[in-house]
Specification:
This protein is α/β, with parallel strands linked by helices. Helices cover about 20% and strands about 40% of the residues. It has a single domain, classed as 2,3-Dihydroxybiphenyl 1,2-Dioxygenase, domain 1 (Roll), CATH 3.10.180.10. It starts with 9 loop residues before the first strand and ends with a strand.
């Protein structure tokens, strides 16, 4: 199909290795491309997230992305068990017709994860 078919959010990381560890050990991601001290590409299922080294902690605390999923209830149970669901981000049916929850990574990037209702 012509046109834009994929996107890979690029999020800030204060420490690339700690970010890689969090996403692989707690969120089930894997190495999906380049990883060094300044950049990492991680993937899970059909998506990739890119991370760039940042020295300003305010940047990731003001950054995030939305991940559209199928089977949000199953993923929520997995993330709840891993202890990564944001305290204010429990699974909820939203008025914008998404069933969603939220995760904050170790640097403060907000991952909103949802499925159309």
């Amino acid at each position: 199909m012509e046109g834009i078919n994929e996107a890979a959010p690029v999020l800030a990381s204060l420490n690339i290795q700690e970010t890689v560890d969090f996403y692989t050990q707690r969120l089930g991601f894997r190495k999906a491309g380049w990883i060094d001290e300044n950049y990492a590409i991680l993937g899970r299922d059909n998506i990739q997230l890119h991370f760039w080294k940042c020295d300003d902690p305010a940047i990731p605390k003001n950054t995030g992305c939305y991940l559209y999923v199928k089977g949000v209830d199953t993923l929520y149970a997995e993330m709840w068990k891993a202890g990564v669901v944001h305290p204010n981000g429990a699974l909820k049916d939203q008025p914008w017709q998404m069933r969603e929850f939220s995760i904050l990574d170790g640097d403060g990037n907000l991952l909103r994860i949802g499925e159309p209702m």
